[in-house]
Every structure is written in structure tokens, then in C-alpha cells.
Amino acid sequence: MVCGDDICCGCGACVSICPKKCIQLVPNNLGVIIPEIDFKECIKCGLCEKTCPKIGENKFNSPQECYAAYLKDKEKRLNSASGGVARAMYEKFLEDPKSYVVGVCWDKEFNPIFKLTNNKEDIKLFQGSKYVQAFSDDIYLKIEEKLKSECKVLYIAMPCQIAAAKKYFEAKNIYTKNLILVDILCHGVSPAQYFKEYLENLHKKLKYKKIKNISFRSNRRFRNFHFCLDYISNKDKEIKYNRFAYEDNYFNSFLDASSLRESCYTCNFSQLERISDVTIGDFFGLSKMPSSTLFNGDVGNASLILCNTEVGLNFVKQIKKYFNIFERPIQEAYEGGASFHGPYRKSKWRNKFVKYYKKGRFVQTMNKIGGWELKKIKIVHGFIRTIKEAYMKITGMEY
Ligand SMILES: Cc1cc2nc3c(=O)[nH]c(=O)nc-3n(C[C@H](O)[C@H](O)[C@H](O)COP(=O)(O)OP(=O)(O)OC[C@H]3O[C@@H](n4cnc5c(N)ncnc54)[C@H](O)[C@@H]3O)c2cc1C
Q1: Which of 324, 340, 356 is the last residue of a domain?
Q2: Are residues 246 and 103 in the same domain?
């Protein structure tokens, strides 16, 4: 054990730094990936502890400037969760041929994975929040390799993954002047194992041949906080399975914090002081600004941008031209953003979830612990969705 099952955030930095390669991430009885050390091989060098973002000190920065922003290009913004800041950052960075970017995309089996690339086409794959914990694998090693060859790297990830990268490069004495770190405001993450089980369950129900795409959020009409599965049916038809977040066992358990990693409930990064150069997220505190001023009659979500270091300030200056962008008081972002105010509280169903979850039975566990109350929520939201869907069909609105 490096830091303990309940506080481990699964960043995988210990796995990457181990000189004997004797640490691996394995799922525990809750399906949560945890490092396991082969003590026969371990030489007790202590590097795993030194690299762990959950042990020892982390250096935090105070935000210096705060913006509300959304991409001017509506077409590019459509598939982003909020204002499309991540996409603009990637695009700006890849203008330089010696630069690389890191983001999270789905693999062939729809597991969320980190990918390092300098191919502009990959930016689309990173768009959209995947509300599932992504596998870090050897991403720290890949970034290290690029930094050593004097390439610039943009790494966008959750705060614990950013903290892990910082500690990893520090422990390895890597020159990080060419690295920009952007953290995403984080509600917490649900283990990939639950999402896998959830998809297996859907596969049995819908009997699809192939998934085309999955999204949890977008700026498309009727796709914000919806679980959307675009699939090819066994009759070769393209079908959209679209459920409102609270109707959906997986999305609901993520949002109401029944199924997060145990470490997320004690997260030390959920605060206004940040670990990164820039922080991005939803600008939930923007309600005081009239949306007519902000969106100019358009619809969509706005992103929050916090510049936390000199490097961050300079980088944001370079991408401002892509946005409709408004400087806002930091306090406004702080007041509206729950993720600045400490870790999410466990839902009333969390303890039961831990008690009843059995590997392979995520959906059944949610149904069992939610009982009639969860059913009622699903029925009400399902009813609202059905009416909306009918309205959209009649009026020919894009789905
Ligand atoms: C698990 C999770 C929890 C979040 N919780 C909050 C919250 O509590 N409050 C809040 O304001 N915002 C939260 N966000 C951020 C929000 O959903 C948007 O990602 C953010 O507003 C940026 O939006 P965008 O339009 O720029 O980019 P988008 O296009 O939506 O996001 C793309 C960026 O997110 C990265 N990304 C996507 N999925 C993951 C993942 N699983 N792990 C790591 N990186 C990922 C991509 O690589 C890319 O850099 C969360 C995001 C995730 C993934």
C-alpha cells in the first residue's frame, strides 16, 4: 500500500515512478483501482511515496484573474461540455509543430484513456466531459519523453492527476518550463469499472451492434446533462438513446455522489487555491450576469477560466481572441462553484452502495439501494423527457 485504499486517488504516478516496476493498479472489492506492491521485488526506495499527491505537501497557487468565456465558433462549441475552453487551448498549442497535448478520449471499448498527441484531428476526441475516471497508464512517462526532447506539452486533467504529474517530474528532476498544467474543476470521479458494467447492462437491453459515440454533456439542444448513446442497432439503424441525467443509473449515481471513489469524499484539491497554471470548469456563479449580455441571444454554457500563475496568465492572453470573454470577480466564481468549497458530501445512498455493491452488479446495486425513491425520480424525469422529445419531433428540432 502506498497511501491507503481510502485516500488513494488512482493517479498511477507511483506505478510510473517505480524503478523496479513492482507496483500495479488492481481493482479492489468495490471495483476501485488501487496500487498493489509486489514486496518481493520492492527495494524500499521511497519514490512511490515521494510522488504520491495524497502524501506530503502540494504547492498551491492563488488565482489572479478570472474569466467567463465561450468559443465564438458555435460549430466548434457544440460538442463541448461548457464554453469549449479546452478545445481552444489544444488548438492554440498545436499551432507550434514542436508541441504536444494530452487529453482524455474513449478507447475502442469505451474506456476513458489519456492520450498524448500532436495530431489536430485528435482534439475532437478530447471534447466533452467523460464523467468516469480515466486511466493514466504511462502518460507521465510519455510527457517526460517529450519534455526531455524539448517539446512543449499541454496537460489538461483532474486536479489530483495534475498534482501527481507535478510530483512525478519533481521527483525525476525533469525540466518543466515547457509544460503547461490545466486542471479541471472536479466534482469527483466514478470508477471506470461501474461504467463498464453499466454499458454491459445497456448492451443486453438495447442489443446494439456497435456504439458510435457517448456523451454526457454538450451544447446541443437537449443534450446537456443527458446520457446520450449513439449506436447502430442490430438492424443496422442509427439510433440515439437519450436519457436525462437523473433517469440514468450511472449518471445519477455520479451526480448525486453515491458512486465516487472513496478518496473523492476527502479530496484536498477542492478549494480556491489551485495546483495548476490555469483552472477550467463551468461558470456556475455567473447567474448575476444577464445571459442576454453574455450570450448575445445565443444559447449554451459558459466556461470558467482561472489564471493561477504567470505562465497561466500568458497562455490565456494568447487564446482570448477565440472567445466571447468577460473578466469577472474571483469571488463570483468561488460562490457559485461547489467544487471550490471542499469535497462533495456522500449521498444518503453511499453507505448502502458500499455495503451491497458486488462486482458485475452496478445497475442492480443502484436499483436495490435507490428502491422506490429512485424509481419515482426516474418516472418523473422520464415523463418530462418524453414530452420534450415529442415536441422536438413535431417541430423538427435537432436532437
Ligand atoms: C469527472 C469530471 C468532473 C467534473 N466536475 C466539475 C464540477 O464539479 N464543476 C465544474 O465546474 N466543472 C466540472 N467538470 C468540468 C466540466 O464538465 C467541463 O469539462 C469544463 O467546464 C470544461 O469544459 P470545456 O467546454 O472547455 O471542455 P470539454 O470539451 O467539455 O472538456 C474536455 C476536456 O476535459 C478533459 N476530460 C474529459 N473527461 C475527462 C476525464 N474523465 N478525466 C480527465 N479529463 C477529462 C478532456 O481531455 C478535455 O481536456 C468536470 C469534468 C469531469 C471530466
Answers
A1: 340
A2: no
